Amino acid sequence: MLSVGEFRGEFRRRFSNEPLIIRAPGRVNLIGEHTDYNDGFVMPVAIDFYTWAAIALRHDGTVNIHSQNFDETVSFRLQSAPRPRHHWSDYPIGVIEQLRPANSVRGADILIHGEVPIGAGLSSSAAIEVATGFAVLYANKADVDRTQLALLCQRAENEFVGMRCGIMDQFISCHGKLDRALMLDCRTLAYKLLPLPDDVRLVICNTMVKHQLAGGEYNDRRAASEAGVAILKKRLPRIRALRDVSVNELDRYCSDMPEVVFRRCRHIVTENDRVQCAADALKQDNLAEFGRLMAQSHNSLRDDYEVSCRELDLMVGIADRQPGTYGARMTGGGFGGCTVNLVSLAHVEAFRTKVAHAYEQETGLKPEIYITPACDGVGQVA
Ligand code: GLA
Predict the structure, then answer these.
(1) Are 367 and 206 in contact (CB under 8 A)?
(2) I need a labelling partner for 252 at 20 to 30 A (CA). Which of 156, 171, 188, 374 fits?
(3) How far does the centroid of ligand 1 lie from the alpha carbon of residue 350, in Å?
(4) Between the CA of residue 285 and those of 127, 194, 291, 328, what are the distances in Å?
(5) How many CA atoms, within 13 angstroms, populate the side-chain half-sphere of residue 167?
(6) Which domains does the chain have, with CATH numbers?
(7) Residues 183-196 pLDDT 10s
């Protein structure tokens, strides 16, 4: 955990100025995977891993960004047009580029410290984007509309970083609430905050297999969903996204599309149903049902969407065998990273020890296991 005093001290030493300090959380998604860019439903939670940004304004048209994690400073002039270069600085620079037209950003010194594990599917990218965006707006005394900030950060990632992500990660980093899961309609951006029962814990198991989402497989999956919509539109002109398609309709037109496109679409259509059922289950305190839906979600991601991997499947299998586990599934974009588990409070310590042991025995990898509360979204730290 970061010491705010030391962080402030480092900023003063480096930039000889007094900073504002902001932190934005990472997230874990309970259910609703790859549905966000299909206008569908998701249910993420903000977690107590943060990206911290200390900021002071400058008035000379220069932006200096120092990353403590990479021990590296990137500087640029606002008159220039910085280009993405597959580097950590693409995320904050992409956000500053998005802010530039509407806000008279005249320069800033920014110090960044990231606690969200990178490449673990816990949205370290969204956390650095949202922390940077909030910091720049806040330091400029501009109003922060959290939904607009989330959209702006998503655009930065789509346009500057080149990863065609949906809105989920940035939205939860902006709108997270203590002890609540957030059920989001990614088409309308309407959301509900759902209380999590007191007697369960969210446990995140990191397989320690790093994923690489920028471009590649993620964008391919997105393209397959779009191909499915284009085919289905010929039969169902009213549809705009897979969100508008039922399982029956998809089955009816199955022979219109390549088998792999059909399976990608089936994951999205069934996953949207599962998120809505999961929200009902949570409202009724029916954790057994919630867990069953998590298991179905994992299987669908593994078999139909094909974004799991051996280590994620293994971690889920081990978790499922432990007493007190309601549900386990991969979380985030996939191809490595973490699983999310809903575990009864009484069993959580035994779960941690046993899962870590069994996973290491099978893979030779030492997993990290985090027990996390649901946290508030981005904000200033006093
Ligand atoms: C990544 C993206 C999100 C979402 C998930 C999969 O985290 O950034 O927008 O698509 O993958 O659910």
Answers:
(1) yes
(2) 188
(3) 31
(4) 30, 11, 11, 17
(5) 26
(6) 4-195 (3.30.230.10)
(7) 999 999 999 999 99
Non-local (6+) Cβ contacts of 326 within 8 A are: 200, 287, 288, 290, 291, 294, 342, 343, 344
Contacts (Cβ under 8 Å, ≥6 apart) of 282: 181, 194, 195, 196, 290
Nearest to 369 by CA among 211, 208, 204, 209: 204
234/269 Cα distance (integer angstroms):
18
pTM given for the model: 0.97
- The amino acid sitting at 91 is Y
| Residue from 37, 122, 169 whose mutation best tests the ligand 1 pocket (most atoms within 8 A of CB) | 169
Q: pLDDT digits over 209-257, tens only?
A: 987 654 588 989 999 999 999 999 999 999 999 999 999 999 999 999 9
169 given a catalytic annotation: yes
SS3 359: helix
The answer to whether the beta carbons of residues 167 and 150 sit under 8 Å apart is yes
Bridge-based pairing state of the strands 20-29 and 72-77: unpaired
Q: Is residue 165 within 6 Å of ligand 1 at its C-beta? A: yes
Pairing outcome for strands 180-185 and 191-195? antiparallel
Measured by CA distance, the residue closest to atom 8 of ligand 1 is 165
